[in-house]
């Protein structure tokens, strides 16, 4: 097995060049032509071995896919289409070259769906494997989706099921659980964790629905840190509240005969990493969007002038079910 | 002393927000308005504690400055002016909050010289401190400076002295050396290491000289990995050779009474991290540029149809002084 220290940085770079467009590599920086009337959108993620990915649950291909999908999801959440990504890699010298090639393979598999290139990067020695991806995209100014513009009365749409990725992770960590699941169900949940899809496909639906209504009256973000977190962040940024109908929150069908209602709801609200979009828009147009998407998209609640996010159970407000960020993911406190 | 784990990711993010423009933070990604007729230029660097910086030689302010300067230097080397940077940070929980604030202080001090904002980032838990910066800039298509377009007969200009940064690092690592230097000389060399200046100031000179000659007939890169590396990379990318006159390679004056000629030349050619520009352009215009810059800029040689880069000593070619990449910096082989 060839390790990185056997071939050095130059040797590794040469092996990885096949994942990058030849016209872009080999200079101090990459040059890209952008659409002149669009804005530039930029997002970045840092991932560390043992914290964000692990060989126990995630192959290098899947780690590459997931990291890429997370960044593309941030672009989708702004309404932006991707232009390219850069990749910063810190690698121990005794890591195998094939691990790194597999990581790049996973990244490019995710990117190729959107014809998006890896346009640059940096590879350095590090005691621990770490990966930093910066994605950039473009968006017409009147199509930007912000967190801060949710309006009282807006319907809240989620573009798909929640809790699947977290369930998949649990199944990977402890294969003994999930005896009540079929192999097909297990594999689907595990795939939701390993190969999440950024919802860039939602954007053309929005552009079509709002072709004559610009700027688009849509606010939102992605649910990468959990559905509860997304709704809370939107409400905080917009100075509004929300009510969610618990029964409306879409979850994988497998949850029905595997988890209690309470567990299923916890996975869906706080599991995270489903990378769906959480969008707030006028109710009639929300219905149009849900019909247009036709793949698990649902209206889960509405924006209120309240200062809380409350969870209703069959239209009854349960006093202790006010959502808080504290059940969400805090990276340093764990 | 407050550590990161005491205030968590959210607490740290709140403390760092003062370093970022308020209109940009708080969404999934940053939105930037670019000049419609310019191209986007992107570059990224990854830095790891103990490999690229260390508390022994580099304060967090200086680590922040240096990392930022390196990225801005890559933009300058493409002819691009900066738009913004993103910052990915992997941090151990027991690192002090003030360390991170000092890092950001150093980054913003460097950026403020060019009115360039930090537009986004990601902060995650990591066993080892690591820093990934991605810088964005823009350039008119006919002003792009590439490595691959050097022409036989071009003069090779360096925009300033070489070897200072490496000398500064040596002085920091071993304060006992450099007894023959004055305090002022020592401080200047150390500052060259801790606070290198990206040569973005060179670009307006080029634009003025080549106002009527577009696309600009200039190729080049920065000397971040050493002057020898820069000349060799340009020659390899352009399919040309070069001759350099060793006496013309500008070094700090302090070297004259501190190092042997051989040592001084080694520092200047292979030291690295001086972040000057190495530019190839027609000889008459190279003279105009050198006069226009008037701060240590010198013609050090010329581009040939040879396949080697040779070093001349008072116009005599020394057979064993053919420059090679192998004396340059290889990140994994050390």
UniProtKB/TrEMBL annotation, chains A, B:
Binding annotation for Mg(2+) 3: 28, 74, 222
Positions with a binding annotation for substrate: 52, 273, 329
Residue span(s) of domain PurM-like C-terminal: 151-311
Metabolic or biological pathway: Cofactor biosynthesis; thiamine diphosphate biosynthesis; thiamine diphosphate from thiamine phosphate: step 1/1
Residues binding Mg(2+) 2, per UniProt: 45, 74
PurM-like N-terminal domain boundaries: 26-139
Binding site for Mg(2+) 1: 44-45, 122
Gene3D superfamilies named among the record's database cross-references: PurM-like C-terminal domain, PurM-like, N-terminal domain
Record EC number: 2.7.4.16
Domain of life: Bacteria
Miscellaneous comment in the UniProt entry for this protein: Reaction mechanism of ThiL seems to utilize a direct, inline transfer of the gamma-phosphate of ATP to TMP rather than a phosphorylated enzyme intermediate.
NCBIfam families, alphabetized: thiL (TIGR01379)
The family this protein is said to belong to: Belongs to the thiamine-monophosphate kinase family.
HAMAP family for this protein: TMP_kinase (MF_02128)
Protein name: Thiamine-monophosphate kinase
Species the sequence originates in: Anabaena subtropica FACHB-260
Gene behind the chain: thiL
């Amino acid at each position: 097995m060839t390790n990185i220290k056997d071939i050095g940085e130059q040797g590794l770079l040469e092996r990885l060049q096949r994942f990058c467009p030849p016209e872009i590599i080999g200079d101090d920086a990459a040059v890209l032509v952008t659409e002149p009337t669009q804005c530039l959108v930029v997002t970045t993620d840092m991932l560390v071995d043992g914290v964000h990915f692990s060989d126990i649950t995630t192959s290098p291909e899947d780690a590459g896919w997931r990291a890429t999908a997370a960044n593309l999801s941030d672009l989708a959440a702004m309404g932006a289409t991707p232009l390219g990504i850069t990749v910063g890699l810190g690698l121990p010298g005794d890591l195998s070259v094939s691990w790194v090639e597999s990581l790049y393979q996973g990244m490019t598999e995710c990117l190729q769906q959107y014809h998006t290139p890896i346009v640059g990067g940096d590879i350095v020695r590090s005691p621990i494997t770490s990966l930093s991806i910066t994605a950039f995209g473009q968006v017409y100014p009147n199509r930007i989706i912000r967190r801060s513009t949710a309006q009282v009365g807006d319907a809240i749409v989620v573009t798909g099921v929640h809790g699947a990725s977290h369930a998949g992770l649990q199944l990977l960590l402890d294969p003994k659980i999930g005896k009540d699941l079929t192999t097909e169900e297990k594999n689907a949940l595990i795939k939701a964790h390993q190969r999440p899809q950024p919802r860039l496909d939602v954007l053309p639906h929005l552009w079509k629905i709002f072709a004559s209504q610009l700027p688009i009256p849509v606010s939102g973000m992605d649910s990468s840190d959990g559905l509860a977190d997304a709704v809370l962040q939107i409400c905080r940024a917009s100075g509004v509240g929300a009510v969610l109908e618990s029964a409306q929150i879409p979850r994988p069908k497998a949850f029905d005969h595997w988890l209690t209602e309470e567990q299923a709801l916890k996975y869906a609200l706080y599991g995270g990493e489903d990378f769906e979009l959480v969008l707030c828009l006028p109710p009639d147009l929300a219905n149009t969007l849900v019909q247009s998407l036709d793949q698990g998209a649902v209206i889960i609640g509405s924006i209120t002038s309240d200062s809380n996010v409350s969870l209703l159970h069959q239209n009854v407000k349960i006093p202790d079910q006010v959502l808080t960020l504290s059940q969400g993911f805090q990276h340093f406190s764990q």
